[in-house]
Write a structure and sequence with these properties.
Elements lengths: L57 E2 L29 H4 L8 E6 L5 E10 L5 E10 L6 E10 L5 E11 L5 E12 L6 E12 L5 E12 L4 E11 L2 E11 L5 E11 L4 E11 L2 E11 L5 E10 L4 E8 L4 E7 L12 H6 L2 H4 L36
Keywords: Chloroplast, Plastid, Transit peptide
GO biological process, one term: regulation of starch metabolic process
Subcellular location: Plastid, Chloroplast stroma
């Protein structure tokens, strides 16, 4: 049942098709088409008059039910899968009840289950509808939990929590997974912004193995887009890491980067990284492939490209073994100026989030505006060590 991680092959990381770069003498690097996709700006039907407010939730009372309203929830003892990104609303299948429920039971095999749902209310029209469910075998060796929620308030903030899932099995394998979608007004640009994120982790109960992933996507109504992921894995004596990111400013400027590295308990380390920046056909690419031995010996090859926007490309590079090149070639510049999945796409795939209805606001009552928040910062997942290249 445990999703065992794949080890990184020795001496060189296999790079994904999404963000790979093979360092070579001519400096050729990942190619992305420079055709700009026609952007479609979709404005949500709701306005966003102010930023997200502070909340003071208040929990409702719950009353046990003598008879379950439906069949017992099914065991979800399957760990998440690696490299699957952020799941869609349809994949999560969130279905919240319209009333408070608290029930539990015992199955014929001795396993137990529970299911609860309710609603919390707070200031500024804050409302959170939620549901919890779970179960375990009679001896407690296998266990699973899942939580769903949706949140809203009078500022236009909406959140669909697909939740938190966790579990363990009789072999000692354990896992957890989180997923969330958020629609709000960005306090700095005053634009509608939609954000999606996911975190996943699994650990083996029989060997020194496990993995962790964090994914995020952020979009605004004028085409600004940010995507990224941080990953970590371990299998016995070998560990590996991966980070990548994409940033589109909505006006033609794009930044992409990838950094992958691995190491063994004996001290051998190796990795690849690359970065590209472009705007209006002008930009650069650069990267490095490297390897370090336990004794301190280090090999590396660095490369770079300068694209001038006139059909000329300056390619250069060198390695610690004496390789070097520096030349200007006639070459067309290719890059992706717009994300292949942008604002119009994410709005179209977030119908459940957009359909969340806030508490009705009484006439003459307006939401409290919070101006104390700080500018958004790049998220860093817990426990991610710095790059071995530094």
């Amino acid at each position: 049942c445990y999703a065992r991680p794949e080890p990184t092959p020795p001496r060189r990381l296999l790079l994904s098709a999404k963000a790979s770069a093979a360092a070579s003498v001519d400096g050729s690097k990942p190619i992305a088409r420079g055709r700009r996709r026609v952007g479609l700006t979709v404005t949500p039907s709701l306005t966003f008059p102010s930023s997200r407010s502070r909340r003071q939730p208040k929990q409702n009372d719950f009353y046990p039910r003598c008879t379950p309203r439906g069949p017992a929830p099914q065991s979800r003892d399957t760990p998440p899968k690696r490299d699957t990104g952020i799941a869609s609303e349809k994949e999560w299948g969130i279905n919240l009840l319209d009333e408070a429920v608290k029930e539990s039971g015992t199955n014929e095999d001795g396993s137990t289950w529970y299911r609860e749902s309710g609603e919390d209310l707070g200031e500024n029209g804050y409302r959170c509808r939620w549901a919890r469910m779970g179960g375990q075998t009679h001896d407690g060796s296998t266990e699973w939990k899942e939580t769903w929620w949706e949140k809203s308030d009078w500022t236009g903030y909406k959140e669909l929590g697909g939740a938190e899932k966790s579990g363990k099995n009789a072999d000692g394998d354990s896992w957890w997974e989180k997923w969330k979608e958020v629609l709000h007004q960005d306090e700095w640009s005053n634009l509608a912004r939609l954000e999606k994120s996911a975190e996943k982790q699994a650990k083996s109960g029989t060997e020194n193995a496990g993995w962790y992933e964090k994914w995020w996507e952020k979009y605004d109504a004028k085409g600004w887009t940010e995507k990224g992921a941080h990953k970590y894995g371990r299998l016995n004596e070998q560990s590996w890491w991966e980070r990548w990111g994409e940033h589109y400013d909505g006006r033609g400027s794009v930044l992409k980067w990838t950094d992958k590295w691995a190491e063994t308990d004996l001290g051998t380390r190796w990795g690849d990284k690359w970065e590209e920046k472009f705007f209006a056909g002008i930009g650069s690419r650069q990267g490095e492939t490297w390897h370090a031995s336990p004794g301190g010996d280090r090999w590396s090859r660095t490369w770079g490209e300068e694209h001038f926007g006139n059909g000329k490309v300056h390619k250069y590079g060198k390695s610690t073994t004496g390789e070097s090149w520096d030349l200007v070639v006639d070459e067309e510049t290719y890059y992706e100026a717009d994300p292949h999945y942008g604002w119009a796409d994410v709005v179209g795939d977030s119908s459940q989030l957009l359909s969340i209805q806030p508490v009705e606001r009484p006439p003459g009552v307006f939401p409290t505006i919070d101006f104390s928040s700080s500018p958004p910062r790049t998220e860093e997942p817990p426990g991610m060590p710095p790059s071995s290249m530094e």
